[in-house]
């Protein structure tokens, strides 16, 4: 059956394809207040799976969840000079509460370093209270001038980690560990997105940090998207909020801190890395529905079989939906599941049933093959893992093919039309970066030739990855 | 070892005991903006377990999670007349965003019926789209004049369910099912809190509802706390937002709706129902730490044993902490775990070890008994279930002993000094209720003599439960 051309082709208009996918796959709607979004059940199901996998990694990293109020007194923000400068233009301000004008306006958290430090100052007394490792799942608000669903929204959902340590070295090692073992591991193992770990240049750092580590991914149009950052805060907030402690030698010292976050923008990244002209391709490990079992048409034996199969596959630990809505044409349902990117479809019709077979559609590789019904429960787990691995491989290959090593600002500019450029940082410098920025091309991060992360701003052999970015 | 009198005794000053427990067990701190709270890891751990158990029940009830923006255009609120009247005095209003005054102020959601209906109107086209069953986990803001940690806070965390149905009967049945199979089941099976299901009088209904079902629990001082409500909204919001659909007979009709919520106030209820003068008593099913294995003092064999035991018990599926902080006096650690209400403590010292034994402290019944180390993994699961059941029984017995059947407003007033009164609603009436309200005593709900929930406001044999309430 011919497929309806429901989506704008990616090559024709990538941003429009992206919005088409979001609308047609029922991932999200625009909210009534500009820049906000309604995350619909199919989109939220992705976020729930992400949360659960991310949360498990954060807990393994030793952090505990907590919850801080979203209302922050305005004067907190001003205590750390760079921080307020960075966030002031994006704040939402509550001036009235309970029918009265407030004595001091409160801001809705754009991030929680300030309010967290206020409490760390109370909770940390001595070196025995360190390290203090906290994470929170929350909504935050940053007023967006150019909103785009999932990627830049005025309100978004995220986790933010906040930790305090006794020494510079320990804080530094913790930020690097989160970057690697929590974020990079999650992006690659669960989202099947190959990412480039790197260091932000001083200009691109988090407001108030002494170092920002980032993970950059290439989208289907060659642009970059930052997915997860981990910051060394040094003692900046500790000094601003006087977060100090009794050291093991009887002195007093300010704590060394980290913060790190990952957000609902990962849903946008997932769409733009794996999606194709037929819609989403969801990695099996993050899919709320891994397998859909479809009855091709109304037929008692077929309906009984798809339901039985659903139970069997669920018993095998798979996340399964049975589509027995035979009053809707099979073609339309099939296109819809294709669009929604469910990794595996099992199509069962009356003739298949007679032969003890079915059609297996592997969404990720776009393959349709006949299969034996009785073998499905045994073979599907391995098939899903194969396709999960394929997505990761494809995302790495796509990025590698579109990343050019260049030698000049001009070449970098040219390369950024279709992908990324890698250029010696010593050659580009702040001046070259500024020249590129005029064309909307930015330094995404610094990396070392062997792929590792530079441990200082001026590591001599650093390479800059430059690209257009979301 | 004598225990330090860390808490105000409950009989001396119950509200102060409550705050003492919250502070000393490190459940929460007051936030910087009046009425807000910081939920600390030990408190948030309780909430996480509650979320996970509640979420599973909500999903079994067929609802899917989604997320709606927290910013609601002010004019949405005014569309449903009773709704705005109920919530206007409690709103937080954002007047500035992104450095500019907003054209229309936005309110921070006090609840989401209005914004949800705006989208339900788009998503529901025909009877085939019904029922639509949505839930969200979110923060909400209601400006509190008399805040109290967990019980009444300006910002709190909750889940709010919102559903749309084709018929009055179906909506009604769904609200009742949530009330019974999700909320009552959760309170009793997980929180071990015996609750009275009932119907709110018209005066106590949710603003905009045609019926509110409630679950009321008796706290340790005899007052009532409302834990979870389920509302029939009728067609009030559907008409205000024009949420209508094509019926199966080709006509158009407004949907029938429900909404239902449960909040972080349940943490407060848990403290006040089960706590005693030594601190919390956490029901095993909701405890983030079910068992703590304590090394009594520094001793190599003891330390090795407690760690090994920890592993063994974890392998048996238990949530276990090993307390090997032998540089802190055993007495202090022991009092602290008592305070934190961990259901089971296993204390291992050098002499115990020689005998292959330990001391088992059952926090919930306050019993200390010797036990054989080798039998623990096999016996503990049943012990925890026994103590879970005991808490539920105790909470029912306590309430029953303090609930009096009375015949007059005067007797009801008197009974409310120490507990609840049950009085025929026909005898009390709106006038009697108003007289009691002057003394801070309110009608918590209406019930039928057999314990079931009246299905109308004027069911002739309804009994009113009256009490002081949080």
Q: Can you walk through the features of this model?
A:
- 2 copies of one chain form a homodimer.
- Chain A is of the alpha+beta class and 470 residues long.
- Chain A folds into 3 domains: 14-274, 2-Layer Sandwich (BirA Bifunctional Protein, domain 2); 291-383, Rossmann fold (3-Layer(aba) Sandwich); 403-467, Translation Initiation Factor IF3.
- Chain A is 36% helix and 27% strand.
- Chain A has 14 helices and 23 strands.
- The first copy, chain A, has helices at 14-24, 41-60, 74-77, 81-87, 113-123, 168-189, 236-240, 265-274, 300-315, 330-340, 350-354, 376-401, 409-415, 425-437; strands spanning 28-30, 37-39, 64-65, 71-73, 92-97, 100-108, 132-141, 155-165, 196-199, 211-218, 224-234, 244-246, 252-254, 256-263, 291-295, 320-323, 344-348, 357-362, 367-372, 403-405, 420-424, 442-447, 463-467.
- In chain A, strands 3-7-8-14-11-10-9 form a 7-stranded mixed beta sheet, with helices on both faces. In chain A, strands 16-15-17-18-19 form a 5-stranded mixed beta sheet, sandwiched between helices.
- In chain A, helix 9 links the parallel strand 15 and strand 16.
- At the A-B interface, strand 2, helix 2, strand 3, strand 4 and strand 5 of A face strand 2, helix 2, strand 3, strand 4 and strand 5 of B.
- Strand 5 (92-97) of chain A pairs antiparallel with strand 5 of chain B, so a sheet runs across the interface.
